[in-house]
Design goal:
40% helix, globular, Rossmann fold, alpha/beta, 8 helices, 22% strand
Length: 209
């Protein structure tokens, strides 16, 4: 049986070739910048850019004075990310369900539009909580189940068309419950503004370890 991580990694290896040149990719990058603003970075903070993709977020975080590490499973995405000078020596390939970091290693984590691709969703969330220091902040953005575009893009396009059956999205209420069960002490779960159609179809999480 094909390893789900390898399958999703190959999907993003291909996506890496087109990501920055598509209107959809431009919108995802805009949403990522919004997430980075919510992190409220202070220079010197240790930050994990989880599912870093082509490294745009990691590069911005390091330029802002953070010590940011980008992690992704896709070799193609990491090859693109390595072209950013600010990312040199700060990228690693790994599995979100088994993060290669010690407990409390990071002050903050950002994860944008990659969580639904993690084959083990709840274990990945528990891992995020584990590697955050007490009081650390998680900012996560992902498509939401309680919006028709989210269901169309994920449940149909990625599940059916691309055969990524492990992909799964969650409603606002499900996110609130998962964050509590994963051990986060406080969480704010909102949706994007209606005047930004893609963002409106997404959940914006700010959770404290």
């Amino acid at each position: 049986m094909d390893n789900p991580l390898h399958k999703h990694g190959r999907f993003f290896d291909i996506w890496a070739k087109f990501y920055r040149g598509t209107l959809f990719g431009l919108e995802l990058r805009r949403i990522q910048r919004n997430a980075l603003e919510r992190l409220r970075i202070v220079p010197g903070q240790r930050v994990l850019d989880l599912g870093c993709g082509p490294g745009d977020g990691t590069s911005r975080l390091n330029a802002a004075g953070a010590t940011a590490i980008g992690l992704d499973y896709s070799g193609g995405m990491l090859d693109t990310a390595r072209k950013e000078p600010a990312n040199v020596g700060r990228l690693t390939r790994g599995d979100a369900g088994r993060l290669p970091f010690r407990d409390g290693a990071f002050d903050k984590i950002v994860c944008t539009n990659s969580f639904h691709h993690y084959p083990q969703h709840f274990p990945a969330l528990r891992e995020m909580r584990r590697v955050l220091r007490p009081g650390g902040l998680l900012v996560l953005v992902d498509p939401r189940k309680d919006h028709p575009f989210g269901r169309l893009a994920i449940d149909f396009a990625e599940n059916v068309v691309f055969g990524l059956k492990e992909v799964r999205i969650f409603s606002v209420n499900e996110w609130t419950n998962m964050l509590r069960d994963a051990g986060f002490s406080d969480a704010r779960v909102t949706v994007g503004p209606m005047w930004q159609p893609i963002a409106w179809a997404e959940v914006f999480v700010e959770a404290t370890a």
